[in-house]
Design brief:
The strands form 6 sheets. The chain has an 8-stranded mixed sheet. Strands 2-3-4-1-5 form a 5-stranded parallel sheet. Helices cover 34% and strands 19% of the residues. By secondary structure, it is α/β, with parallel strands linked by helices. The model has no long low-confidence stretch (mean pLDDT 91).
């Protein structure tokens, strides 16, 4: 069939309208412009128009039976529009069938059927039909892709949208050369399987967001629930794109790393939006969170991937500890998931000897797992190696293991080894030999003064006494660390308790203190001797997990002490000093030793067998000390007749039971500046990193300057302490005879046990090396 131009078409229409032959004339229109021209030219006066759209209920396909009835029975002259634009929804076969039905129809009037872009479906070899089919020439308009979307979705402005399927034909035949027509409808693509239009569905918020911002196409539908996508879609009512949404709800989308500390305060929707923000815009300086977001499929999986991301790392990796520390902080912010934690702890057991590198002190469960690990592998590490790992993994436990300088080699070595054994849950034979030796020598009598001789004049109107029941000197390294962290100044005296080391015989230090000045802390004693928090060596756990709570108690007390010392406007009087005193210490290694004394005594053992009342028929046991009315064991045995301890014991005369601290704590907000320099230098010539020379004859020596003079000044280099000598006017001299190798050293400066400055850099070079380098 040959296409006609518009004038030729008009002649055909004119002749058709004059004839008495009452069968429809079919005119196929290529574009909306030509269709509009025909309607304007003909549908005036006596010539009417039948619009198929008028036969549709809201959002429904037209009632074809009614349309065909009217076409067949209507008298007069009329043009029909929109029919084929609807029929195309049903497919080519259905369209051809209905066109044939219309063409062969007998009508009572002159019916002109205006089809729209149907020339390929109107081809026929029947010359009788060809005379009643006109193909108009012209450029065809674009037929849009149909986008079915639910009525509650917000469609962006500027897109061609109709509300209801009934407006389909009008929108297509009106024509605007648009590529997509958005149809708000309850219909679905599957209801039109043979459609000649390309149909896509846009039935949820996720689909709508793709329209709002092209960035949405980078987001997988599974990364959010329908409710989460709807939440985001509502935010787009006041935003142009995802960047605006993130900026308004979270913060600067280009600096998402600064909002990590606030994760725990985010609502679930905000956390999801933050998660999507990282998917879109990445995050800097937080590899752990970045990896977790990129590897997970939903925000609900975030905890899982934060926990497990480190499992792909090796402790030997250059940036392992950086990743570890990032993850540790992140888990605190995320409020650790108990289910993920439990599964993670099961997984890391497979790491065997490397397991400790994958644990943190964020949770009680992990802390207990650390002690399980140390029980199994602790002996594979030296004390220094163990501390270096624990500084990352469990800093408080590392601080517990930090040596305290008792100014006595026996005490230094003894308590370093005691704490190490307590932590790894082992009693070394050579250490037990040392205990037996001291049980007979009892050198503590000459090393330490009795506590009663050290407690005079401690009580003052502006002081408080914290009575720390059962807190021995083993905690001094930890206390010193926490006090330095809190900015507390402490002065420590180590003395000995009365034996047997029981509370009733060791309370003389309370004299002189008013009742309202004494704060009694019984929790450590309750943990050690009453199994508080369900700690029990024989029933629940043979691991020293009670140490977890003991360290927490001490930290909590020190934090409260700082508050007392800092004071507030509601205080009736200022407190300028707090004194911490313990009645006695306790021994964990007695519990590990778990043996009864071989000597039979007339009296039964008391205080878990650590002492017993004397009897006239008794002979002094080899390793027992004469303690007035009692025998007190100085080795790790128990007297018979007493029940076993559940956690730790006291009452005997081992060093850990009788060595007790007197700790005076004060607070000053004075900012002391500390500088190190060569001996011949002064403050006006100091360089940023001081440098000294050493040689066979020239020993290492430095000078310290402080803006506020201090007592008992010393420095620590490579874990060794060097005393300082007062020169005057804020200067101190420190001889360093062990520093003989060139290199850069880190210097920590102390006043007593108080850290004044740390990691000050000192360069050491061999004398004459500079001249050789120049040559």
């Amino acid at each position: 069939m040959i296409a006609l131009n518009y004038n030729e078409c008009k002649q055909k229409i004119y002749h058709f309208l004059q004839k008495e032959n009452y069968q429809p004339l079919i005119i196929d229109i290529p574009s909306s412009e030509i269709l509009s021209q025909i309607i304007n030219d003909y549908c005036v006066g006596e010539i009417s128009k039948i619009a198929v759209t008028d036969y549709c209920a809201h959002d429904e396909f037209p009632r074809l039976e009614d349309i065909l009835w009217d076409i067949q029975n209507k008298t007069g002259r009329y043009f029909v529009t929109g029919l084929t634009s609807f029929l195309k929804l049903q497919g080519e076969e259905y369209l051809r069938k209905k066109l044939i039905e219309v063409i062969n129809m007998s009508t009572k009037g002159h019916a002109v059927i205006l089809t729209y872009q149907c020339r390929q479906y109107l081809q026929t070899r029947d010359p009788r039909l060809e005379r009643r089919i006109i193909l108009l020439e012209g450029t065809e308009d674009i037929i849009p892709e149909l986008v079915f979307c639910s009525s509650n979705l917000s469609i962006p402005n500027g897109l061609k949208t109709i509300n209801g399927l009934e407006k389909l034909a009008f929108a297509i035949e009106k024509g605007m050369n648009f590529e997509k027509l958005y149809v708000k409808t309850k219909k679905h693509k599957k209801q039109f399987p043979y459609s000649l239009y390309k149909i896509v569905e846009l039935n949820d918020a996720y689909d709508a967001l793709i329209l709002k911002d092209s960035e949405s196409s980078r987001l997988n539908r599974t990364w959010g629930t329908e409710q989460q996508w709807e939440y985001a879609l509502k935010l787009f009512d006041k935003a142009m794109n995802w960047a605006d949404v993130i900026d308004q709800e979270i913060g600067d989308h280009s600096k998402l790393e600064i909002y990590v500390p606030g994760i725990s305060q985010m609502s679930h929707n905000q956390l999801w939006l933050y998660y999507i923000g990282i998917k879109l815009y990445s995050i800097k300086n937080n590899d752990c969170l970045y990896d977790a977001v990129m590897n997970s499929s939903s925000v609900e999986e975030l905890n899982k991937f934060v926990y497990r991301g480190i499992l792909n790392k090796a402790p030997s990796d250059d940036h392992f500890w950086e990743y570890y520390d990032c993850r540790k902080k992140l888990l605190k912010f995320l409020n650790n998931s108990q289910s993920e934690l439990n599964m993670y702890c099961k997984l890391i057991v497979a790491k065997k000897q490397q397991e400790i590198y994958f644990l943190t002190d964020n949770t009680e469960r992990e802390k207990e797992e650390i002690f399980t690990y140390l029980d199994k592998y602790g002996r594979n590490f030296s004390l220094d190696e163990l501390k270096s790992i624990l500084l990352h993994v469990y800093p408080d436990l590392a601080a517990y293991l930090i040596p305290y300088d008792f100014k006595n080699k026996l005490l230094n070595d003894y308590f370093d080894q005691y704490k190490y054994q307590k932590v790894i849950n082992k009693l070394f034979p050579d250490f037990n030999e040392l205990v037996l030796e001291q049980a007979q020598k009892r050198e503590y009598n000459s090393i330490l003064a009795p506590r009663a001789s050290q407690t005079e004049k401690l009580a003052k109107p502006t002081s408080l006494l914290y009575f720390m029941d059962a807190m021995g000197v083993e905690y001094l390294g930890y206390i010193k660390t926490i006090c330095n962290e809190l900015g507390l100044k402490l002065n420590v005296s180590v003395c000995r308790a009365e034996i047997p080391s029981i509370t009733s015989l060791n309370k003389e230090f309370l004299e002189g203190w008013q009742p309202n000045q004494v704060i009694s802390i019984k929790e450590i004693d309750d943990i050690k001797h009453r199994g508080k928090y369900n700690y029990d060596y024989y029933r629940n756990s043979k691991l020293p997990i009670h140490l977890i709570k003991e360290l927490e108690v001490i930290r909590d007390v020190l934090e409260k002490i700082k508050l007392k010392l800092v004071g507030n406007e509601n205080d009736e009087k200022n407190i300028d000093e707090v004194v911490m005193i313990s009645d006695h210490g306790a021994s964990r290694l007695v519990v590990l030793h778990d043996k009864e004394n071989i000597w039979e005594m007339a009296e039964k053992g008391r205080h878990f067998g650590r002492c017993c009342k004397k009897s006239e028929i008794d002979e002094q046991p080899k390793y027992a000390a004469d303690a007035g009315e009692y025998w007190a064991l100085a080795n790790y045995d128990r007297f018979k007749g007493s029940r076993k301890a559940s956690v730790e014991v006291h009452g005997g005369a081992t060093l850990e039971e009788i060595c007790v601290p007197i700790i005076r704590i004060s607070y000053t907000n004075k900012n002391i500046e500390v500088y190190i320099m060569p001996l011949e230098s002064s403050m006006d010539t100091i360089s940023q990193v001081p440098e000294i020379e050493v040689s066979y004859r020239k020993k290492a020596v430095i000078k310290i300057f402080m803006t506020d003079e201090q007592d008992d000044v010393s420095v620590v280099i490579n874990n060794k302490r060097y005393p300082a000598i007062v020169i005057g006017q804020g200067y101190y001299r420190v001889d360093l005879p062990d520093i003989k190798k060139k290199g850069t050293y880190e210097v920590d400066v102390y006043s007593g046990n108080n850290l004044l400055a740390e990691k000050l850099q000192l360069n050491v070079r061999r004398e004459g090396m500079r001249e050789k380098d120049l040559l």
